[in-house]
TrEMBL record:
Pfam families to which the protein is assigned, alphabetical: OB_Ssb-like (PF21473)
Name by which UniProt lists this protein: Single-stranded DNA binding protein Ssb-like OB fold domain-containing protein
Region (Disordered): 1-22
Polar residues bias: start-end ranges: 1-11
Length: 155
């Protein structure tokens, strides 16, 4: 009688279990605002909306009359560790009302004029949730930190 090592047992049991069933969704890992870094993505956060500013659109004469206008708003959002500017687009604009608590899924960091902006594209999701109990730390705004791209020469 052949015995299996624990690793072989785990591989054979997971292979037989996954053969008939769809793989399950991973549980989201929620992070805090102060953990955001330039050039990163796939973040899930629970934040409060502090303020909301609609970005005026430039008049584009070359765009056809039937083209859909993109609505953009910049919202200051935050949690108990800090704040950042979130760029809301189209339907997301309607959800971002001051005082609301939202969950941002699959959010990414975009750089705009050397500073970080949080955004959720078509692969992510913005959803309103029940009000959170935390107090937003407004004196740590990550969008006010200016970054500079530096090329490092390899020797």
């Amino acid at each position: 009688m052949a015995t299996q090592t624990p690793i072989e047992q785990q591989e054979s049991s997971s292979a037989s279990a996954s053969a008939g069933a769809k793989p399950g969704l991973r549980k989201p890992v929620f992070i805090k605002v102060d953990q955001l870094k330039p050039g990163t993505g796939g973040h899930t956060l629970t934040v409060k909306v502090l303020n909301f500013n609609t970005v005026p659109q430039k008049d584009r004469r070359s765009v056809s009359l039937h083209a859909r206008q993109t609505r953009i708003a910049e919202c200051l959002i935050g949690d108990e560790t800090g704040t950042i500017i979130f760029t809301a687009r189209n339907d997301q604009v309607d959800l971002m009302k001051p005082g609301t608590t939202v969950i941002l899924r699959n959010a990414k960091i975009d750089m705009f004029k050397g500073s970080m902006r949080l955004a959720v594209d078509k692969w992510g999701r913005v959803e309103v949730t029940e009000p959170a109990e935390f107090v937003v730390k407004e004196d740590n705004n990550l969008s006010l930190v200016e970054y500079e791209l530096v090329n490092v020469a390899e020797e």
